Amino acid sequence: VVGGGDGGFENALILAERHGCRVDMLMRSSTYRARDAFVERARRHDAITLHPSPTSVRAIEDLGHAARLVLETPSGADAIDVACLFLKIGFGPRLPDIAGEGASDFMRVDAHQRTSIPGVFAAGDVIDHPFRAVSHASGQGARAAFAVAHHLGLFGQGKDCLLYTSPSPRD
After folding, report:
1. What does the alpha-carbon distance between residue 97 and residue 104 come to, in Å, rounded to a whole number?
2. HSE-up (13 A, CA, CB side) for residue 1
3. What is the pLDDT of residues 81-100, one digit of tens each?
């Protein structure tokens, strides 16, 4: 999780507490902007690592099954391998060099929320979209979720990854 505000800490806690994930937290600022209660819970959680601040992601390298984040930390260069990356960095994201595309303010995606990096999808404020609103980000997230399911081969193999409520489109 990249971000030191309430959103970043809250997402890290949800991932660790509810989903059993190991979480690395990276912050661009040397000070946390999150509520003290969130920061203390994260510090005490064994599955959450708070990296030295400020830490910047300088590049994202495709590993096929994961991604390597190339970091700039107060103690020098470092790298960590991650399965997922959550950017919780506010309204105006500043992205690192992503697979040689060059640093920019926004990620470019196609109609299925795919980036130019195979297996990497993006939605919400991190993409350049003329209508920045929660409703649009939610729709983009849903589109990305379907695209990820297709990418992972979860459709057409007897694996139903959709949950319908009544009335169902199947009715």
Report:
1. 7
2. 25
3. 998 888 887 655 556 666 55
Q: Exposed/middle/buried for 53, CB within 10 Å: 0-12, 13-18, 19+?
A: middle
And the tokens for 62?
């495709």
| Cβ atoms of residues 58 and 71 within 8 Å | yes
Bridge partners of 26, per DSSP, are 2
Stated as kind and residue range, the H or E segment containing 25 is strand 23-25
* Residue stretches of the chain with pLDDT short of 70: 90-105, 128-132, 155-171
Q: What is the model's pLDDT at position 48? A: 97
Q: What is the pTM of this model?
A: 0.56
Residue for token pair 């919780």: 88
